[in-house]
Design a protein that fits this description.
Layout lengths: L34 H51 L2 E6 L7 E6 L55 E4 L3 E3 L2 E11 L16 E3 L4 E7 L7 E3 L4 E7 L5 E5 L5 E5 L2 E12 L4 E18 L10 E19 L5 E10 L3 E7 L8 E2 L7 E7 L4
Parallel strand pairs: 3-5, 4-6, 5-7, 6-8, 7-9, 8-10, 9-11, 9-12, 10-12, 11-13, 12-13, 13-14, 14-15, 14-16, 15-18
Antiparallel strand pairs: 1-2, 16-17
Length: 373
C-alpha cells in the first residue's frame, strides 16, 4: 500500500485574519489559478460582448436606413401616380334656343367637363375631354353641347340643314333633330283637317323629339299617339296644327321652342290626360291651345302653361268647362289684345260647340301681362 500523501495547507493573509484559511486537495495535475488571470478572462469576454453589440447596432441601423429609403421611394411613386391621376377639366357649351351652361369633371386624369346645360333644362350634351398627360397638366374640357331646350327664346333659329320627308317619320324613343329643318315633300298642307299620315313626325307613347324645326309643308306637324315630350321644337309656319295630342292619359310636355303663322291652332288636345307648355313663344296665331270641342269621344282634359309669350294671338287657351276641363296659366306676356281664357260648351261626335260664360274655376290666369313685356 503506497504511502498516504499529506494534505497541503495553504495560508493566505486575508481580510479575515488568522483562522480564515481555506484548504483544498491537490489533484496531482492542476494548479491553482490566480485572480489576475480570472480578471483578464472576464475583460476579454466583456470586450467580445461589446463588439457583438456594436455589430448588431450597426446592422440594425443599416436595416432601418434601407427601410426608410424603401418607404421614401414608395411614397414618391405614390405621389407621382396621384399627380398623374389628378387631372381635371371643364367644358362649356350653348345651344340655339336654349340657355347656356358649363360642366366640369375631375379625377383619374381622364374625364373633362361635360356639356353645358340649359338654363331651365334641356341643355345639350358634350363629350369628355382628353386625359391629363401628367401631374402638371389638367385634363381637357368637354366639348360644348348641342342645341338645348331650356329658357324662353323669342328669336326663330336658323336651320342647320334641311331634310325632306316623303312620309311621316315614326319615333319610338328619342330623336335629336340637331336643329335641322324637316319638311314634307311633296307638301301635305291642303288647307283642311288632315291626319297622322300628313305629319312630319309621329311620336309613340313615351317618345321625345328635340331640337327640330318643322317646315310649312307638313300639314299636321307632329302627332303624338301617346304621352310625348317636345323639347326645343320650332314650327316655322304652321299649316293646320303644330302638334296634336292623342294620349288616353298621362302628361305630354312642350318645353321651349315656338311657332308662328298658325291661322288655326298651335296645340290640339284630342286625347285625355294633361298637356303642359313651358317657355314657349308664339307669333301671329289663331289659338295657342284648344281642347277638342266636338271629338267622337269626349273626356275631361287638363292643361298648364308657364312662362309663355304670345305676340299676336286671337285666343290663348280654349277649353270645355261643361266636360270638366281645367286650365291654368302662370306667367305670360300676351300682346295684341287676344282672349286669355275662353270657355265653350263642348259636344260629342260632331257639330259645333256652344258658347259658355267665362269661369275662373275652369281657366285661371295669374301673372299675366298684356303690355310692357
Amino acid at each position: 500500500m503506497p504511502p498516504q500523501q499529506p494534505k497541503v495547507e495553504v495560508r493566505f493573509a486575508g481580510a479575515g485574519g488568522p483562522g480564515a484559511n481555506e484548504s483544498c486537495e491537490n489533484d496531482g495535475g492542476s494548479g491553482v489559478g490566480s485572480k489576475a488571470d480570472d480578471d483578464k478572462s472576464k475583460d476579454k469576454s466583456k470586450d467580445k460582448a461589446k463588439d457583438k453589440t456594436k455589430e448588431k447596432a450597426k446592422d440594425s441601423s443599416k436595416d432601418k436606413s434601407k427601410d426608410k429609403s424603401k418607404d421614401k421611394s414608395k411614397d414618391k411613386n405614390k405621389d407621382k401616380n396621384k399627380d398623374k391621376e389628378s387631372g381635371s377639366g371643364s367644358g362649356s357649351g350653348s345651344g340655339s334656343g336654349s340657355g347656356s351652361g358649363s360642366g366640369s369633371g375631375s379625377g383619374g386624369g381622364k374625364s373633362g367637363g361635360g356639356g353645358g346645360g340649359g338654363s331651365s333644362g334641356g341643355g345639350g350634351s358634350g363629350s369628355n375631354g382628353p386625359s391629363a398627360n401628367n401631374g402638371t397638366l389638367p385634363g381637357g374640357g368637354g366639348s360644348g353641347g348641342g342645341a338645348g331646350g331650356g329658357g324662353l327664346q323669342k328669336t326663330f333659329p336658323t336651320p342647320a340643314g334641311t331634310e325632306n320627308l316623303s312620309a311621316a317619320r315614326t319615333i319610338s324613343g328619342s330623336f335629336d333633330g340637331q336643329m335641322k329643318l324637316f319638311d314634307r315633300v311633296p307638301s301635305t298642307c291642303s288647307g283642311g283637317e288632315g291626319g297622322q299620315a300628313d305629319a312630319a313626325f309621329i311620336l309613340e307613347d313615351g317618345a321625345t323629339l328635340s331640337n327640330a324645326i318643322i317646315g310649312g309643308g307638313a300639314g299636321e306637324g307632329v302627332q303624338c299617339a301617346g304621352s310625348c315630350t317636345l323639347v326645343n321644337v320650332w314650327w316655322d309656319k304652321v299649316c293646320e296644327d303644330a302638334a296634336t295630342f292623342r294620349q288616353t292619359g298621362g302628361t305630354s310636355t312642350v318645353r321651349g321652342g315656338g311657332a308662328r303663322g298658325a291661322s288655326d291652332k298651335v296645340f290640339q288636345h284630342n286625347g285625355g290626360g294633361m298637356v303642359e307648355v313651358i317657355d314657349f313663344y308664339a307669333q301671329n296665331v289663331g289659338q295657342l291651345y284648344r281642347s277638342c270641342g266636338n271629338c267622337k269621344t269626349q273626356v275631361a282634359r287638363q292643361s298648364s302653361f308657364k312662362n309663355i309669350y304670345v305676340d299676336g294671338g286671337k285666343t290663348i287657351v280654349h277649353v270645355n268647362g261643361n266636360l270638366g276641363d281645367k286650365a291654368t296659366i302662370d306667367g305670360a306676356c300676351i300682346l295684341g289684345g287676344g282672349t286669355v281664357c275662353k270657355n265653350s260648351k263642348g259636344v260629342e261626335g260632331g257639330g259645333e260647340p256652344g258658347d259658355a260664360p267665362d269661369d275662373p274655376n275652369v281657366c285661371s290666369a295669374t301673372n299675366v301681362q298684356t303690355s310692357g313685356c
